[in-house]
């Protein structure tokens, strides 16, 4: 009996009695390759050595050194070994229930009778085991005709059995800003691009003796024998794509994990290729990355940060820093609000900046827990400032694209501010421009609910993508935040300044305020003030502050307000 790749399946017979061992061999030897073990310890060694090849184990319970129940317990504790089906062969009928609880799939009583029935039960157990992986998965992606993700992973596993001694490369291909193709050129054009890429990698897989699959929306997978030149592969895959989009360029990126470690699961091998691919996400000058030691170290660090995140929240290791925003269109620059920025004071790794953990948590969904923690900490602090200084300083907090998908988000954040005795107007919600492109209908629905609750919505990083210009008139927002990339290069009359002026005009037509981020110099301040920018944020006024230092800014603002009030009173007396 062979599997989908034509490889003869292997059965491990575990039996210390020679006669019983021979009888079992006779039942299966015409269709299966047979290997043997005569005691428990030898069984464990054999399973470890052939775990990727064994299709089924016929297991005797009564053996020297280690009995069959102990073998079952050992297999159940291992995530790989527990997937191998085991049929128990024994005279101990009382052990049947215990064996099933330990993971056995069937039970054959000794003395052996009806070999035809035994063979049918063995065949059925193997078919069911493989069916869980291959039959359950739809084999081909409807759009591209490539193997679906699940089937690709299962198929790659069986391929490894057949080509165990040949080196393999795991490759992930992705498209930078694919959503913009759908938005600007239409979904049909986006589908045509995917189909063209699929055709190219299918051809490569066929020529190289490998496998091609679709990993997700715009992610493709290649599993081919080692030795190919990645640059040549990338060139072949990208050939002709610009003609589909009327000479607009498609920016591909490729991550390669060379000569994969066969001891890793197929999924883990492609995780490493994906790490390489994502390391150049958004970089239009570099299209190829190969997994290396530096990435391995980063992967290990990421895994540690993920594992430490819960204890970090529980032990309040995440600290909130506040960067002030100043209104600059009045007679004096006045403290208007602040943005909350989080840092991680890790007990062993030291102070970690947001870019070291925020993207990681966004990718794996943990960001929602961290965001909720920040919402609560900030709300608590704002309430304390209101009591201590008798002043209202709204603070902006991040709402990630992961948060947008959370059920009843408006109720969740509203409950946070209620529990801390502040109004929704004291907690402004920042949603990045890129989040609006993921699912515009859902975003609009969630934002409308939040605004109905009384929250002000800020579009963060405005201007970093074309989508905001197309969607801005339909999205309900209260504040636009100009990305610092536009601000840092502004000079009188240059292109960057003209772009900023254009964005300010858009904001005025929508009757929303504008915050300019990253303001550092007097020239930038003067240009923005003269252009009519409402609020600025950046090192020109202050770097992000710990709570104690930000309170000094609040006290300074209170002192200025007191002076103004006293001047008014003095004038009245006159």
Give structural notes.
With 574 residues, the chain is of the alpha/beta class. Helix content is 47%, strand content 18%. It is built from 22 helices and 19 strands. It has an eight-stranded mixed β-barrel with strand order 11-12-14-15-16-17-18-19, surrounded by four helices. Strands 2-1-3-4-5 form a five-stranded parallel beta sheet, sandwiched between helices. β12 and β13 form a beta hairpin. α2 packs parallel to α3, α7 (178-185) crosses α8 and α8 (187-208) crosses α9. The mean pLDDT is 87.
In short:
The protein is of the alpha/beta class. It is built from 22 helices and 19 strands.
Could you give the distance between the termini? 106 Å
Output the strand order for the largest sheet: 11-12-14-15-16-17-18-19
Give the fraction of residues assigned to helices: 40-55%
Share in β-strands: 15-25%
Compute the CA-based radius of gyration. Answer: 32 Å
Class from secondary-structure proportions:
alpha/beta
The parts where pLDDT drops under 50 for at least 5 residues are: none
Average pLDDT: 87
Which term fits the overall shape?
A: elongated
Tally of helical segments: 22
Specify the biggest β-sheet: 8 strands, mixed, barrel
Number of strands: 19
Q: Could you outline the blueprint of secondary structure elements for this entry?
A:
Layout: E1 10-14, H1 18-28, E2 33-37, H2 40-50, E3 54-60, H3 68-76, E4 86-90, H4 96-101, E5 106-109, H5 115-135, H6 149-162, E6 168-175, H7 178-185, H8 187-208, E7 211-214, E8 220-225, H9 230-238, H10 241-244, E9 252-257, H11 266-278, E10 288-290, H12 293-314, E11 318-327, E12 334-346, E13 350-352, H13 358-364, H14 367-389, E14 395-398, H15 401-404, H16 409-419, E15 427-432, H17 440-452, E16 457-462, H18 466-471, E17 479-482, H19 484-487, H20 495-510, E18 513-516, H21 522-531, E19 535-537, H22 547-573
Parallel strand pairs: 1-2, 1-3, 3-4, 4-5, 9-10, 12-14, 14-15, 15-16, 16-17, 17-18, 18-19
Antiparallel strand pairs: 6-8, 6-9, 7-8, 11-12, 11-19, 12-13
Helix pairs in contact: 2-3, 7-8, 8-9, 16-17
């Amino acid at each position: 009996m062979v599997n989908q790749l034509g490889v003869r399946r292997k059965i491990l017979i575990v039996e210390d009695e020679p006669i019983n061992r021979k009888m079992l061999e006779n039942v299966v030897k015409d269709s299966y390759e047979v290997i043997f073990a005569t005691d428990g310890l030898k069984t464990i060694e054999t399973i470890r050595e052939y775990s990727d090849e064994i299709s089924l184990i016929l297991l005797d319970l009564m053996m020297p050194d280690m009995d069959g129940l102990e073998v079952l317990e050992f297999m159940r504790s291992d995530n790989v070994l527990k997937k191998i089906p085991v049929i128990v062969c024994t005279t101990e009928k009382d052990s049947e229930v215990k064996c099933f609880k330990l993971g056995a799939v069937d039970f054959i009583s000794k003395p052996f009778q009806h070999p035809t029935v035994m063979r049918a039960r063995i065949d059925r157990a193997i078919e069911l085991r493989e069916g869980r992986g291959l039959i359950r998965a739809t084999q081909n992606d409807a759009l591209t005709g490539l193997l679906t993700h699940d089937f690709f992973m299962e198929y790659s596993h069986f391929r490894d059995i057949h080509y165990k001694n040949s080196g393999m490369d795991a490759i992930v291909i992705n498209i930078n800003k694919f959503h913009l193709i759908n938005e600007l050129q239409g979904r049909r054009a986006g589908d045509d691009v995917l189909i063209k890429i699929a055709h190219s990698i299918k051809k490569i897989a066929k020529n190289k003796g490998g496998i091609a699959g679709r990993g997700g929306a715009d992610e493709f997978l290649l599993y081919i024998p080692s030795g190919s030149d990645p640059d040549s592969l990338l060139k072949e895959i990208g050939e002709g794509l610009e003609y589909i989009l009327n000479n607009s360029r498609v920016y591909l990126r490729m991550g390669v994990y060379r000569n994969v470690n066969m001891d890793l699961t197929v999924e883990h091998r492609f995780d490493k290729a994906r790490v390489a691919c994502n390391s150049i996400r958004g970089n239009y000058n570099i299209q190829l990355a190969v997994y290396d030691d530096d990435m391995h170290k980063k992967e290990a660090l990421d895994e540690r940060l993920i594992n430490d995140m819960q204890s970090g929240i529980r032990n309040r290791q995440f600290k909130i820093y506040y960067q002030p925003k100043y209104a600059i269109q009045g007679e004096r620059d006045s403290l208007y609000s602040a943005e909350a920025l989080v840092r991680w004071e890790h007990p062993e790794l030291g102070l970690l900046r947001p870019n070291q953990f925020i993207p990681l948590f966004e990718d794996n969904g943990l960001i929602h827990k961290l965001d909720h923690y920040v919402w609560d900490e900030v709300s608590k602090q704002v309430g304390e400032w209101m009591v201590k200084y008798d002043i209202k300083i709204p603070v902006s907090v991040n709402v990630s694209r992961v948060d947008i998908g959370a059920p009843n988000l408006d109720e969740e954040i509203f409950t946070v501010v209620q529990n801390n005795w502040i109004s929704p107007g004291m907690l402004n919600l920042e949603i990045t421009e890129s989040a609006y492109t993921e699912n515009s209908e859902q975003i609009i629905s969630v934002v409308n609910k939040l605004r109905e609750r009384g929250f002000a919505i800020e579009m963060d990083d405005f201007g970093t993508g074309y989508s905001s210009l197309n969607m801005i008139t339909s999205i309900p927002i209260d504040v636009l935040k100009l990305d610092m990339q536009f601000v840092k290069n502004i000079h009188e009359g240059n292109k960057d300044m003209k772009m900023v002026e254009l964005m300010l005009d858009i904001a005025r037509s929508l009757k929303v305020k504008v915050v300019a981020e990253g303001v550092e110099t007097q020239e930038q301040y003067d240009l923005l003030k003269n252009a009519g920018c409402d609020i600025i944020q950046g090192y020109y006024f202050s770097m992000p502050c710990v709570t104690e230092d930000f309170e000094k800014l609040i006290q300074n603002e209170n002192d200025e307000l007191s002076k103004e009030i006293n001047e008014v009173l003095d004038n009245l007396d006159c």
